[in-house]
């Protein structure tokens, strides 16, 4: 059994995972504006509620950069008080177990490979489409994170005067149309054509982003997660139309793009970090 933790912007969640199944899970509202110690206490609280004597490791997914080797969290998007936190050492000393820390997008991808759309695949990229665009990569059945969990930061690539995630995340609706993405989704659900057209434009940009991913990685599967992926029905056609401009047509014959159906893939992926690290 392994404990997986998802430290997000709105919730701190932990689960006890065995053979890719979550047997016990708890969550707390995230105190992103709290002090470093207050956030740590929340983390301790959720772990304390799921850990058992049979737990072999603790894995934690965080929304930011991490030194994987030393377990130091450099900078988290939603937790301003966390700067250069030796989180791995802190958790190890408290629980006496191996601790692995990684970026949340990487945990998403690993979770999909272990228990979701990526099961049985050798290579995949997991794209989280929410407030930003994160990418996790599994190559030859192993998570590829980079030294600081920065591998696959395609959202930061320059694009149309900004960067890719400006156009391929929830930011797109705020920046381009000056409207909240939740409102756009509600309008599209009610059949509003203007909202649906916004998603078509979004799909075109996402298709361009996916071409960057394919040129760099040549994966056979891309799994989409995050809040914006729920609008798949309105953007998938324009996304594929954009992808058709990819130079190497043979790649596209073998490519699948799917939407995640795992409710807690990030927790499953975090719990799998230890086994992945010792491959």
How would you describe this protein?
This is Sugar kinase. InterPro entries: ATPase_NBD (IPR043129), ROK (IPR000600). One of its GO terms (molecular function) is kinase activity. The chain starts with a strand and ends with a helix. The protein contains 11 helices and 15 strands. By secondary structure, the protein is of the alpha/beta class. Strand 2 and strand 3 form a beta hairpin. The protein has helices at residues 36-50, 87-95, 104-115, 164-167, 171-177, 181-189, 193-217, 232-243, 249-253, 265-271, 273-277, and strands at residues 2-7, 11-18, 21-29, 57-62, 64-67, 72-76, 83-85, 99-103, 124-129, 133-139, 142-143, 158-159, 162-163, 221-225, 256-259.
Shape-level CATH architecture of the largest domain: 2-Layer Sandwich
CATH 4th-level superfamily of the largest domain = ATPase, nucleotide binding domain
Please tally the β strands and state the result: 15
CATH class label of the largest domain: Alpha Beta
Helices, by number, come to 11
Q: On the 0-100 scale, what is the average pLDDT? A: 93
Taking pLDDT < 50 over at least 5 consecutive residues as the criterion, the unreliable ranges are none
Portion in beta strands:
25-35%
Feature tags:
Nucleotidyltransferase, domain 5; 279 residues; 15 strands; 11 helices; 27% strand; alpha/beta
Outline of this structure?
The protein has 279 residues and is α/β, with parallel strands linked by helices. The chain has helices spanning 36-50, 87-95, 104-115, 164-167, 171-177, 181-189, 193-217, 232-243, 249-253, 265-271, 273-277; strands at 2-7, 11-18, 21-29, 57-62, 64-67, 72-76, 83-85, 99-103, 124-129, 133-139, 142-143, 158-159, 162-163, 221-225, 256-259. It is globular and about 55 Å long.
